[in-house]
């Protein structure tokens, strides 16, 4: 993609993108493909540096502080931004060489969702406490990424696109689908196109409104889905005949809480939904239908038991 942006314009776009004022998709329309690839590396390097907690110099520390504070304006950085970017690129590429790792890893925290645009224009929307990773150097020849958690994929047409998980893999050419892979729970729903699903024991071809689920080591089962897209994208998790333990895990990931479920049978099956914007309503809609009492014994630690 050609661009007429000046160097200063590119630095401004980078500043706004790192500050959250530009989405991945918006940035791709403003810079060249090569620049976008470099920017992904810069963001990855910043993430790595934060984890190492070892700023290289004052300029790098200022950039870190800017990202952590997430102030609404990036103007305070403009004065020294060119120098800062130059210094940070040197540092970040030094990190890549030391780590010898070209993988991009993106993850979400409790109650967080995130939309990512991949190098081919495909879009991934991550649900809370989820992670995807892929090798950017191999992306043009092998569109493969790894997923732990839940994500909704809108795949651009092209070469085979593969999602690998600990429970199985999903392969498509261009389509829309949702994948959950958490511990021993594996669920794939096709919303558009055709999806190939392969577990360790079976293979499935899914058309729109079809789904396949594998729970707790039992054989995979194909089911129907009448929704046009996952409800969690709009702020609500929906379950159909799902063991309660997985609903509890979804609540924990969304609201950053912990449950003591020793007094109940967490294999009970639940059908229903809970919202993402109100913990009290979420607890009520899940547990009152199952005749379960929930009490907070310590801060954000909730004990479950049956009504007597």
Provide a descriptive summary of the structure in words:
The chain is an alpha+beta fold. The chain has three domains: 7-101, no CATH class; 113-224, Jelly Rolls; 235-306, Phage tail protein beta-alpha-beta fold (3-Layer(bab) Sandwich), CATH 3.55.50.30. 31% of the residues lie in helices and 34% in strands. It is built from eight helices and 18 strands. It has helices spanning 7-18, 24-30, 33-52, 58-69, 75-78, 81-99, 244-255, 279-287; strands spanning 103-107, 114-117, 123-126, 131-135, 143-154, 161-164, 168-172, 176-182, 185-192, 195-199, 203-206, 210-215, 221-224, 236-243, 258-260, 269-275, 292-298, 301-306. The strands form three sheets. Strands 1, 2, 3, 4, 5, 6, 7, 8, 9, 10, 11, 12 and 13 form a 13-stranded mixed β-sheet that branches. The chain has a three-stranded mixed β-sheet with strand order 15-18-17, with no helix packed on it. A hairpin with a 3-residue loop joins strand 6 (161-164) and strand 7 (168-172). Helix 3 (33-52) packs across helix 6 (81-99). The longest helix has 20 residues, at 33-52. It is globular and about 65 Å long.
From the structure above, extract its key features.
Jelly Rolls, Phage tail protein beta-alpha-beta fold, globular, 13-stranded mixed sheet, 3-stranded mixed sheet, 308 residues
Give the arrangement of secondary structure elements.
Blueprint: H1 7-18, H2 24-30, H3 33-52, H4 58-69, H5 75-78, H6 81-99, E1 103-107, E2 114-117, E3 123-126, E4 131-135, E5 143-154, E6 161-164, E7 168-172, E8 176-182, E9 185-192, E10 195-199, E11 203-206, E12 210-215, E13 221-224, E14 236-243, H7 244-255, E15 258-260, E16 269-275, H8 279-287, E17 292-298, E18 301-306
Parallel strand pairs: 5-6, 15-18
Antiparallel strand pairs: 1-4, 2-3, 3-5, 4-5, 5-8, 6-7, 7-10, 8-9, 9-12, 10-11, 12-13, 14-16, 17-18
Helix pairs in contact: 3-6
């Amino acid at each position: 993609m050609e661009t007429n942006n000046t160097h200063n314009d590119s630095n401004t776009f980078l500043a706004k993108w790192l500050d959250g004022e530009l989405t991945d998709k918006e940035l791709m329309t403003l810079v060249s493909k090569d620049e976008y690839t470099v920017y992904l590396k810069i963001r990855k390097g910043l993430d790595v540096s934060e984890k190492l907690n070892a700023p290289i110099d004052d300029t790098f520390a200022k950039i870190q502080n800017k990202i952590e504070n997430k102030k609404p304006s990036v103007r305070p950085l403009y004065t020294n931004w060119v120098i800062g970017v130059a210094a940070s690129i040197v540092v970040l590429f030094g990190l890549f060489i030391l780590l010898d790792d070209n993988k991009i890893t993106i993850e979400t925290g409790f109650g967080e969702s995130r939309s990512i645009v991949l190098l081919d224009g495909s879009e991934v929307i991550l649900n809370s406490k989820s992670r995807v990773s892929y090798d950017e150097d191999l992306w043009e020849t092998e569109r493969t990424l790894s997923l732990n958690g839940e994500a909704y994929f809108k795949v651009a047409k092209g070469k085979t696109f593969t999602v690998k998980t600990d429970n199985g893999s999903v392969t498509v050419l261009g389509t829309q689908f949702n994948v959950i892979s958490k511990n021993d729970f594996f669920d794939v729903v096709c919303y558009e196109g055709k999806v190939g699903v392969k577990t360790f024991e079976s293979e499935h071809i899914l058309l729109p409104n079809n789904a396949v689920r594998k729970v707790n080591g039992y054989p995979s089962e194909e089911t129907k889905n009448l929704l046009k897209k996952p409800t969690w994208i709009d702020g609500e998790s929906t379950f159909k005949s799902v063991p309660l333990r997985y609903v509890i895990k979804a609540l924990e990931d969304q609201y950053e809480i912990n449950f003591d479920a020793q007094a109940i049978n967490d294999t009970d099956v639940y059908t229903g939904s809970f919202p993402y914007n109100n913990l009290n309503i979420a607890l009520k809609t899940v547990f009152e239908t199952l005749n379960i009492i929930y009490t907070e014994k310590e801060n954000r630690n909730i004990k479950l038991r049956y009504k007597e």
